[in-house]
Amino acid sequence: MNLDTLPVLSLAAPSGNLDEDLAKDLGSSFQRFGFALVSDHGLDPALVARGWELTAAFFAQEEAAKRRWHIAGGGGQRGYTPFRTEIAKGAAHHDLKEFWHVGRELAAEDPLAATMPANVWPDAPDAFRETFTALYAEFDRIGARILSHIAVWLGLAPDWFDPAIAGGNSILRLLHYPPIPGDPGGAIRAGAHEDINLITLLLGAEEAGLELLTREGRWIPASPPPGALVVNIGDMLQRLTNHVLPSTTHRVRNPDGARAAHSRYSMPFFLHLRSDFAIRTLPGCVSAENPDRYPVPILADGYLHERLREIGLKA
User: Fold this and answer.
1) What strand order describes the sheet that includes 210-213?
2) pLDDT at position 4
3) Distance CA 190, CA 188 (A)
């Protein structure tokens, strides 16, 4: 494997829904980089195109119109989060971005409903709810499929993650990085950070800017072919696997030259565990050479809120 180039891996496995060679290739890329580039994932291009159109239309509205959907004290978990709200852990400057969050919709009587805020839906643009509900379901499906390959690579049953993510607090984020006016004063579009969740599936990284930090301390681009997904390991999976699968530091740097006058859009899906899942180190990831870093388990919901406070989204 090239030390500075992420391989592009096809989910169109020739031998059916689960392919051991694909599991090996995905696992190797995740172990080396914490990232993989995934093509042939099955997202409907027409649905994705509608998603991009509606994302741009929403963020093009006046600030006051967008702020109607900001939930004060909500930790940014649903609805609109204004520009320069989120800050990477330990960073000096807030990120140059604004975003919208869509979460899972559960029946009121579901035992997990109390751990998740309800979605809010804007009254413009039209078809916003229908489009992003459909995209959420598709990301959810593809994420579960990728996790099945990760499970096989870890020596687990292909369906090991299924009960762990059923009803999970996963979030679809619509991200807008506005044009950068003049000197941003040291701020960048997204400061160096790691993700909180199990895995992240990202659309929109064809636009340059996303970079990851290698183990050797080099920043390298994560540049997928058009329409492909960037998939990365989050802190929950890093903890679960005792760092066998690393949650890699990444950032979105500011564009150069004329590109600074253009918006950048992306669409990450943060795939989460169920709120009541106890994150307990997998026995197969503990050895004399890799002793258990986390002997005390933590509930996924508690871990999430601990991290939201660290990044400025929750008081």
Assistant:
1) 190-193, 250-252, 210-213, 219-221
2) 74
3) 6
Question: Given the DSSP bridges, would you call strands 35-39 and 8-10 parallel, antiparallel or unpaired?
Answer: parallel
- What gap in Å lies between CA 29 and CA 273, rounded to an integer? 22
Rounded Cα distance, 81 and 94, in Å: 13
Q: How far apart are CA 37 and CA 226, in angstroms?
A: 11
Q: What are phi and psi of 159, to 5 degrees?
A: -100, 15
Q: Is the pLDDT of residue 15 over 60?
A: no
| Dihedral angle computed from the Cα positions of residues 62, 52, 38 and 247, in that order, rounded to the nearest 10 degrees | 10
Best CA proximity match to 34, nearest among 277, 237, 287: 237
pTM check: above 0.70: yes
> Which tens digits make up the pLDDT trace of 174-200?
999 999 977 888 999 999 999 999 999
Residue 245: which of 6, 37, 23, 34 has the closest Cα? Answer: 34
Cis? peptide before 125, omega within 30° of 0: yes
Residue 70, pLDDT score: 96
**Which among 244, 308, 261 is positioned nearest to 85, based on CA atoms?**
308
Structure token pair of residue 110: 């579901």
> Is the distance from CB of 203 to CB of 229 less than 8 angstroms?
yes
Residue 255 to residue 253: CA distance in whole angstroms: 6
Let me know how long the chain is: 315
Backbone angles phi, psi at 139, to 5 degrees: -60, -40
The residue behind tokens 């004329």 is: 258
CA distance 153 to 141: 19
Burial of 216 (0-12, 13-18, 19+ CB in 10 A): exposed
Backbone angles phi, psi at 56, to 5 degrees: -60, -40
Cα dihedral 135, 137, 140, 144 sign: negative
